[in-house]
Amino acid sequence: MAVLWWDRCDDVYCGFWINWNYDAVRGSTLTLPTQWGLILVGFFALFVKLGSENLWGVICFIIHQLNASEKKQDDIYHQFQLVLRNTDSEQTFIQRLIKVAQAHKGMRFKVYRRTILFILLASVYGLGFYAVSGLSSRLIAAKDGSTVLALSPSCGYLAAPSLVNLGDEKSFEALNALVVVARNSYRKSATYARTCYGQTGDNTTACGTFVKTSLDYTTVKDEPCPFGDNMCSTKAIKFDTGLIRSDTHLGVNTKQRDSMSLRKTLTCAPLDGERYTPGWKPIPDELAPIFGVPLGTPYKIYEFGLHSQLVVPFNTGNNTAVADWVSWKVQQEPYGIWYVAPNLHARLERHMLSLRKSQNSWKSHAQPLESFEAR
Description:
- The chain crosses the membrane at residues 36-63, 115-133.
- The chain is an alpha+beta fold.
- It has helices at 34-67, 75-85, 90-103, 108-139, 169-196, 288-291, 325-329, 342-357, 359-363, 369-373, and strands at residues 2-6, 15-18, 28-33, 140-141, 218-223, 236-245, 261-268, 281-282, 298-302, 321-324.
- The radius of gyration is 38 Å and the shape is elongated.
């Protein structure tokens, strides 16, 4: 069993819980606030001290009664019984027996021979309680280097605000706050990656946020094209995490039989896009404002398979991505890895027109991002 203390119980569970990295006995843990943890430390120290003294008194009384006799005895016997009857601790008991032996000049060997077992008993008893005191202090740990049970009241994805009416002040502030959260999350992620993914990252305090500093994966080169032999310009590369356990890798505190395993594989390959496009065409006049390009700007469609989140009228047939001449000239990729999560891109496309129309109305409400970050 372990006893931990923490600064606050807002983000850490305080009370009894079981760390299922061990069994039910070794994993039994009590987490307390700091002030109660300090009180418990003092209580353990006092309990061990009083317990050892009282138990030794009981042991001495039992030995005294078992050794009592109505027969005539020598002075060594009576002195030994007197020591048993008037000893507060094992240290005092050993010291007084040594004094008794030193007082009998010429008979010291005889005295030691008759009391050596009791001296050894007192020594083992004292060392045993010193060991118990050390173990009890190890059971109580501060927050540094300890495992605690985190509370997750806000676990899950952040609910994105509605982008329908950005002219509304609340909607605009919600979007602005979302941008601030995303920026801060990116900064923290970038800092963690720079600090903890190096060879010496495990030794830094900043890398103790998660159960595992990083999740290992394997890289397989020269994989076949995942989309078909004719769609890729070269061989693919595959990244495989293997089985990731929810308890040992992700830190979800469950019994081993209740844990889950997941596996993430990612295969990347450059597509031979020019084989799947009909070429450049003039963009329709009604779509030019959506893309923010001049009238008559050329565009072309890539046809890898239907992408239903494309804007009308491109969301038909096998259309996957749309590129305009302006973006093409600045080397902006019309498709890439980000296409595996098309929802955000599609939502931004659908609301781009309403964003431009309401630009004049929400400009008056615009504030620097730092002002929302400080709130």
